[in-house]
Amino acid sequence: MGCHRHCYSCEGPGNDECQTCVVPKYLHNGTCVSECPAGSYNTRQEAVGQELGFCLPCEHVCSTCTGDSPRDCLTCSPGHLRLLHLCVTHCPTGYYKDGSHCEKCDQSCEQCTGPGPDSCRACPPPLLELQGTKLCVESCPHRFYQLHDRCEQCHTSCQTCMDASPQSCLTCDWGSTLKDKVCYPRCEEGRYFSDEEICQSCDSSCRHCTGPRTDQCLTCHRDSALHAMENRCARCCQAGGNDTDCCVCDSRSALCVEAPQRKSGDDPRIDVNMSSRPLNHTSAALPVSLLLALGLALTVFALVKAHSRKSLCWGQSYERLSGSASVNMPHGVPEPDSGDEVDVVYTSRGGSVYRRYSFIHEQDTDADQDVDESTCLNLS
């Protein structure tokens, strides 16, 4: 009795008793099939002038494959991830898990949780990790200073600084005066010093700000945190909540660890424009430097004159307290879960501690102490 019509050679007449098959059929478990099943691949051999086909098993990590090597996987078996042509149990450094695949991190990241430079978990040298974000940058932007391989947050009163204390400011925002490395604000909490040189209200989402927009916040109210890239405040996400306009908050810095979703009506402009590439301010550097130099000269002249009359503007807004302070004193923004609403306290280089009082003053009846407040506020 002859073989089954699909068999080239056989052990019996059944279709599952084949020993060899002729291409385009392939032998699998005694049967000649048109396609090899999952977990196997087809191969061909020449014998007695015929091209015989066989199904051979894939490497155990492969679900489908083109050969017997671990590098020949097309899809991976359960519990494994596809990395190029390999199947691995976890993604190596420089890659992140995306479904059943391992995808390469952005070139600015050493480790990451997803695509793009804002998903970095570790930054390769010489890039620096920006506190409160997942970004890697080449240099620290305003409001941050370099500490080893990280950009740490300055005290919120400083625009640029040497460390995180309020006594280490190098420059201040418009509307604050720098004296002995401390920035003294001209407006009370919730208000900013405008271009018209008057105190105007911040956006309601900001506790302190540099302008009226939602993306000009410096600090935030309780249960909110500041996104360092967008300079706007967002509510801290609550466990089990469904709020989409919230951020994952870092209780140590009152910063958003992950960016909040932008509301449709928000102004898309951002004050600090950062990326993983170098920041370019060369074109405006010369005129800005000249204006700053002129402003500094006028400020020094006005301060010397005011000091000689004992009529410094902030002299009416601070009182000297007992005790002293050091660079290691607590500083920064209250933690999102903190209810601390006390007045802002600053410390001079000599260690004297001052508390800022309300900016609404009683009328001074002494003619010798009468100071033209509009002149003081216009110092710059």
Structure description:
With 380 residues, the protein is mainly beta. Among the domains are: 7-57, no CATH class; 64-104, no CATH class. It is 8% helix and 32% strand. The protein has helices at residues 282-308, 373-377, and strands spanning 7-10, 18-21, 26-28, 31-33, 40-47, 50-57, 62-65, 73-76, 81-83, 86-88, 95-98, 101-104, 111-112, 120-122, 128-130, 136-137, 144-147, 150-153, 160-161, 169-171, 176-179, 182-185, 191-193, 199-201, 206-209, 217-220, 224-227, 232-236, 246-247, 249-250, 255-256, 318-321, 345-347, 353-356. The strands form 15 sheets. A four-stranded mixed β-sheet has the order 16-15-18-17, with no helix packed on it. Strands 27-28-29 form a three-stranded mixed β-sheet, with no helix packed on it. Strand 23 and strand 24 form a beta hairpin. The radius of gyration is 34 Å and the shape is rod-shaped. The protein starts with 6 loop residues before the first strand and ends with a helix. The model is unreliable at 261-286 and 311-380 (pLDDT under 50).
Task: Please summarize the sheet with the most strands.
Answer: 4 strands, mixed
The average pLDDT is: 75
- Strands, total number: 34
Helix content: under 10%
Strand-residue proportion: 25-35%
Low-confidence stretches: 261-286, 311-380
Distance between the termini: 109 Å
- Provide the spatial order of strands within the biggest beta sheet: 16-15-18-17
State the shape: rod-shaped
* Rg (C-alpha, Å): 34 Å
Q: In DSSP terms, counting alpha (H) and pi (I) runs of 4 or more, how many helices?
A: 2
Which structural category do the helix and sheet elements fall into? mainly beta
